[in-house]
Amino acid sequence: MGRTKVAHRKKGRGKGSHAARNMLRALRLHRQGWSLRKAAKECQVSFQTLHRYVKKNDNVNTAELGAQRLTPNYDVNRVFQTEQEEALKEYIKECALKLYGLSTKDVRRIAYQMAIVNNIKIPDSWRLEKMAGYEWLRSFRSRHQDLTLKKPEACSLARATAFNEEAVKKFFCNLKEVMQRHPSFGNGCRVYNLDETATTTVQKPQKVIAPKGRQNIGKITSGEKGTLVTTCAIVCAAGHALPPVLDFPRKHYKDHMLTGAPPGSLGLANLSGWMTAELFIKVMEHFIKHTSASPENPALLIMDNHESHLSVEALDLAKQSGVTILTLHPHTTAKMQPLDRYGLLVDENYQQITIYNIAELVGQAYTKAMTPNNIASSFKKCGIFPFNSDVFNEIDFMPSEVSSRELLNIPTDLQDDKFINHSSSEQPLERQNPFGSTSILTNIENPTEIIEESSKDTMYFAIQESDNRNSLSSDVTDAESPVLQFNEIPSEHVVTRNNESPSILDSTPSKPISFASELKLTTTNFKSPNEFMPPLKSEPRVGKRKPRKLGRSLIATDTPEKLQITKERQKAKERKSAAKAMKRPILVEKNHEVLKRKTKRKKVKIASDIETSEEENTEYYFSEACK
């Protein structure tokens, strides 16, 4: 019969768990005549450990026992020193804050590469697997409790790179300018935020308590794919909320759709359930009605710059009613919009939900979420009220650092004199794979001699195989040694920000934020991962495609901005009309061809004339439309 596999035995209580003072006391008691077992039990140390230390310190005087090391020296087998592990830890933190988080295998591979680059003694299993061991990772995490294993949330590259210092500075400049126009804007009683959220009949289920050992634990919902109802919420920095607007996916709106909604709510209908430019005019009328906005009692409305929000009719209505509209920079609403700092939580309560129950559920969640404390704290976190342009720090802007590069060959008509965005996300940003074909350890069994050749623009790592595994050379002797390029970003493509003006481009190579840059390592010539790993930077632009004009934060109701929006809308309308006029003759010709194909040719024999013979009869062909 096969033997049952025994689990890994845990360490005993005395192995490495005793303090130096307990061992010193046990040694003194033993020298006073106590037995080993009695002294070990009295001082709560292991009997075998005490016996080993008694033999080790047999020739040491009792007075000199305190100067001896009386605890295990487990650090003698550590691969990296404390300072070296700190450098690795800070690199892991930097990658995570830049939204390029490393998995457990990535960390093990980087640890192996760091040991090879710095010629550090490593176990043979590391060389065999080309990565650090799992036990090393477990010990590394136990020594650094500030690191934890988390499941990351999906974040688009546009959202990560659009939230940059220039975009935030531009918004707060516009906000400061608007708040100085009227005293009521400065005290927050006339500052509002508008945003739409998708409310569906099928909500994302929350975590539930279930028995162990059972898989596929689910929760009953109305369906697997819900029907969308757009809920438009409006809140004030003073701490109150306006009645919401609900857009139902129907052709015609019925009053019973708002059953259970907060008093004063507005109901709209659209086939798609999304907000449109035509419906937003009614939303603006709803806002003006409940805020009593007028030229004598103006209001400030902050919202995103979605196309449906910036229709010419809505802007004209807002300006006539004393409403100043300030838009946010695209893809920054997750951090800069108060209504995005928290959301409405709708519980299904195990009932069959249709769009006719949405209003009641929204009404229940609205009263719980839209409290004065929640609304005021959300405006404060965004720095809108009280006004705080320094609410975001360098760590918040770290994800945008990966795309800091120069805008090359952009026509002047596409650039804004007031604001230039250095973090365009139109071109896909690709990070060099540190463990793929560009890795210094790819397809090399014994990487022994690693030579670094650095220049102003590029940095290379040359790898040369040698019989001596512990030797480092500064020259490449083998002409066929592979030279693998790690960082080839010319300095003219690197953009730094000048402190005097955010729109001035400086050609000096920028230094990415590094937590490990201030560490003073005691090891001579130690190379941290920031030095030999590929930088978290986007590659230079490739191609001659004309970049699109970027969105930006603007005061939409101001005359210059409104005229520019009107001009753009007119151009879009003309392009659409021109395309429609071009398609019309094509469609007419296409319909004619279709009609011609549907016409069948019918063979008909005409009776011959009396005076002609039968052979001289003529056959006529004509087409007859299909009936």
Automatic annotation (TrEMBL):
<feature type="domain" description="DDE-1">
    <location>
        <begin position="231"/>
        <end position="341"/>
    </location>
</feature>
<feature type="region of interest" description="Disordered">
    <location>
        <begin position="526"/>
        <end position="547"/>
    </location>
</feature>
<dbReference type="InterPro" id="IPR009057">
    <property type="entry name" value="Homeodomain-like_sf"/>
</dbReference>
<dbReference type="InterPro" id="IPR004875">
    <property type="entry name" value="DDE_SF_endonuclease_dom"/>
</dbReference>
<dbReference type="InterPro" id="IPR050863">
    <property type="entry name" value="CenT-Element_Derived"/>
</dbReference>
<protein>
    <recommendedName>
        <fullName>DDE-1 domain-containing protein</fullName>
    </recommendedName>
</protein>
<dbReference type="Pfam" id="PF03184">
    <property type="entry name" value="DDE_1"/>
</dbReference>
